[in-house]
Amino acid sequence: xxxxxxxxxxxxWLFDAEPARVxxxxxxxxxxxxxxxxxxILDFGDGGSATLTCSMAVSALQVVQVVGTEGxxxxxxxxxxxxxxxxxxxxxxxxxxxxxxxxxxTCDQYTIQGDLFSRSILDGTPVPTPIExxxxxxxxxxxxLASGASGRWVAPNRT
Length: 159
Prior knowledge:
- With about 160 residues, this protein is an alpha+beta fold.
- The chain has helices at about 5-15, 110-125, 130-150, and strands at about 20-30, 35-45, 50-55, 65-70, 70-75, 90-95, 100-105.
- The protein contains three helices and seven strands.
- Strands 4-5-6-7 form a four-stranded antiparallel sheet, with no helix packed on it. Strands 1-2-3 form a three-stranded antiparallel sheet, with helices on one face.
- The longest helix has 20 residues, at about 130-150.
């Protein structure tokens, strides 16, 4: 319900679609009653899937790998809450060629987010990620939790 939202949101964005179904294993902390670890498969149909594991009970690590028929992209320098004072990088490998490191310009994601939200209020411009996207992301999160409880594939609600 916390850090897993980023991997789910990124998967939905990359596929530009909603998963048809999810299968998950979720560990609930017995003392706190919250999810402390989750692994899930998001099935986007037509052979497309995303897999994710997130946990607040293991060593801190954030890695995203996007693998396709012609290469891969890896984001391994804190992709979901990148530092605002040092450049980040991604690695690109086309086919089986050399891995190219691509540096991403330093920025303060939270300031940009706040500025864009303020601009939408002041100027009436649309927010980059509308509330409907958050609702659809929550539908997938709830399907992950339901699948974790049942051990079965679960189709997200279509809110």
